[in-house]
Amino acid sequence: MAWRTVWGLAGSAVVRGGRKLPLQSRLQRSLTGQQEAAAPVPKSVPLSKLTDNFLDGTSSVYLEELQRAWEADPKSVDASWDTFFRNFTGQSTSMAGLSGQTIQESMRLLLLVRAYQVNGHMKAKLDPLGLDDRQPPLELDPALYGFTDADLDREFFLGVWRMSGFLSENRPVQTLRGILQRLEQAYCGTIGYEYMHIQDRDKCNWLRDMIEKQVPGKYGANRRTVILDRLIWATNFENFLAQKWTASKRFGLEGCETLIPGMKELIDKAAEKGVENIVIGMPHRGRLNVLGNVVRKPLRQIFSEFSGGIKPPDESGYTGSGDVKYHLGTSYDRPTLTGKRIHLSLVANPSHLEAVNPVVIGKTRAKQYYSDDKERNKSMAVLLHGDGSFSGQGVVYETLHLSDLPNYTTGGTIHIVVNNQVAFTTDPKSSRSSPYCTDVAKALNAPIFHVNGDDVEAVVHACELAAEWRSHFKSDVVVDIVCYRRFGHNEIDEPSFTQPTMYQVIKNHPPSLDIYIKRLIEEKLLTQEEISTLQDKVFRILNEEFNNSKDYVPSTRDWLAAYWAGFKGPEQLSRIRNTGVKPEILKNVGKLITTIPEKFTPHRGIQRVYDQRKQMIETGEGVDWATAEALAFATLLVEGNHVRLSGQDVERGTFSHRHSVLHDQKTGETYCPLDNVLMNQEEEMFTVSNSSLSEFAVLGFELGYSMENPNSLVCWEAQFGDFANGAQVIFDQFLSSGESKWLRQAGLVCLLPHGYDGQGPEHSSARLERYLQASDDNPYVIPEMDPSLRRQIQEVNWQVVNITTPANYFHVLRRQIHRDFRKPLIVMAPKNLLRHQACRSNLSEFDDVQGHPGFDKQGTRFKRLIKDKSDHGAVEESIRRLILCSGKVYYELDEERKRVGANDVAICRMEQLCPVPYDLVHRELKRYPNAELVWAQEEPMNMGAFSFMAPRLATALNTLGRGKFEDIKYVGRAPAAASATGFGSVHKQEQLELVQKALQLAPIKFP
């Protein structure tokens, strides 16, 4: 059996029989002919296809067998083998002058070459501070392969191996000294390449060619002048800020100024390859420099923000909360060296390092969809990382893991790590378990280019190569800029508290600009006077922009651009729109989404489900939750909107209710009815996709996707509602506050299964209280509720609903699109209501026909509060108790009321919890003037909606003179640490007690 090589940090090992053998053992066996028996090599296979096998220790056996076959009949082997053996037996003139090279020597040399290709990066000069104490790996010592100084000037024949790179030039014969010099130059300079872990040989060969054929000093005088100018801008920008705002935090780029020329080169190369849009995500380190010098945000605007200037309000006074300057994003068109223009957008993000990664990827994917960029050529993502966060934050891997999934790929992301070798105050030895901070990317077969941050030309080349790779292979690539942080975590921090040795070196270390200037002067490319002229020009512009910043006033709000033109902010009144659909359209799309092609063989159980759905549409009665959802999606598609649903197992649905993608039981083929509601429906117009087992990254992805274009319904569904805990950063930092901090609207819908069914604490509660607690409306002020003036939802940060009817679900989904502003929507989705016989709607509740059940004086739309089903009159003085509740507990309350005949109890459903529909609450309080008010919920008192609703209900009571906070009765579970019991019998008893207490059939007491 052939031996499999496993390359590690300190060298190589061989796996054989489940145990590792050191490289020395492997070489001894290989070079002394002690290989194990191997399966015969097919004689028709070209030598180039077998090189990897030979280098894994099986070469001699193969060569001997093939040589015997060749001697018997040269035509019995591939032509490449014929050439090989002719050379070694003297039947070819190409070996003339070689001093007795043997097959074994050839193999040793190839092993040495492979060692450089695999582990040369470990000898590369990567650390600008010179603190790296790694020893060169043993495999790079020629003596290990039997070579001595006497062999250095011997010539060796390598051409027939077609190893690519310089070894496949028209110089098949080279001295060992020359070969080693080229290997050192290619693999052990200021760039260290990791790529031999990649499984695809074509990708490896492409990179070998790019690396080994690289000509030293590839940049001419003009290009190097451009690189210098860009480095001057990067350096002097930081110096200027430091001079003007000495006590301000800016998280400057000092120590990695070469990032700016590198990014600019990357952008130029990407534009040359056809990229038109680049979406950028990055942490705070160097953000202002990237904003000013790469994205081209006006310097006067940056300086205005430093001077304490805030974004002025528009005509009606709305500004939002704002954010610190090194969290802000922007977007601009900028020219490239070739004269093309490219659109750059830097996504705003919080201090949660790496949280922005999936948001950027989702936004990029949306750009590709809306520009019909199926080849992923026009839009791409660039993510900047810190070394500590790239190795330490789980969302990095979650995002990388999306890179090649069909409905999430963006055709490759370029990752740039600003590796300043310290995470806040933590040394690498304490912040990661891997040799490099980038090792996580190797799991996804991404090539990694480690580059010394002091060598600006090397940084530029690595970024250029990354852009070439992404264009060629449409897959991720990592550039790891090994640099340093000249100051502390921020400019007023003292780094010597924790890294005294490092910062003693940094204190005496010249900036990369000084190093490059010295190099250019020594090479006589530029004079000191010419360089001073360039620097003076930069400082002059910086000063001009600083002076102009004092009077800077932005002209428009950032987010009102592109597809968002015409959409309103919280300060602009947006009229309320109906969401009903014409009956004939409902019937038509209903038929389409319940029809399975005749030649398709679905599972028998799913066939029954679709037959039932078809009957619902035909009779117009008993429409269930899944059918209502499909009708909402279908009608939005018919109206020209894009619909996307993603999350774990959403195609079938966690509770086996959706079945949006059908699987042929004979062929395995799939069919999605919602792909066929329009003639020649555009590909991906409806997208439903089972995601990877990720919440953080996938929710972030869908948020980014929803931000690109408002004319799309983008939904993320948690497998169970509590699983959203894993994505809490996205909820807290982006969804709930993004519009306030960054003036960025998003209409993302989050479906969180919720409801107490005896399934234990992890599968009961979606933590409704967390979303309500993050709502920003004032519990003591009732806003304007007149329908013609109401902008209550526009002024709140998001909406939270707990819906009890399929029709209401239909309307709340359509409401997301049918208005001219966007707000995130949190839906406490049902579980047992998906099949509950009472949780059904008639098709007439979906249409826009006046007089039908869903139509009121305003039209057909989402019902924020559903009044008691008994159809009480305008005033019902005999009702002794008014129960307000939300979600599936309503059905249990109503069933118990019916069972005991409690006709003096009214039950109203709060379908929309945030913002509170005060107008409808007032209506019901007036309807039942003598009723005591009860809030009933399934959740414990410290969870659920009670703590949110109580002060708001008290405000509603107080304005009507009906009472105060103490007059609100609470019915629900007692305060608890766990969200639910794990014992079925206890759950059943608790549920019965709270229902009876709500109807005042049992005394209120808690266990």
From TrEMBL:
- Cofactors required: thiamine diphosphate
Give coiled-coil spans as residue ranges.
none
Q: Which EC numbers characterise this protein's activity in its record?
A: 1.2.4.2
Q: Does the UniProt entry include the keyword Oxidoreductase? A: yes
- Give the source's domain of life in one word: Eukaryota
Transketolase-like pyrimidine-binding domain: residues covered: 623-836
UniProt keywords (A-Z) are:
Oxidoreductase, Thiamine pyrophosphate
**Function of the molecule:** The 2-oxoglutarate dehydrogenase complex catalyzes the overall conversion of 2-oxoglutarate to succinyl-CoA and CO(2). It contains multiple copies of three enzymatic components: 2-oxoglutarate dehydrogenase (E1), dihydrolipoamide succinyltransferase (E2) and lipoamide dehydrogenase (E3).
PANTHER family listed in its UniProt record? 2-OXOADIPATE DEHYDROGENASE COMPLEX COMPONENT E1, 2-OXOGLUTARATE DEHYDROGENASE
Q: What's this protein's family per the entry?
A: Belongs to the alpha-ketoglutarate dehydrogenase family.
Q: What is the protein name for this chain?
A: 2-oxoglutarate dehydrogenase, mitochondrial
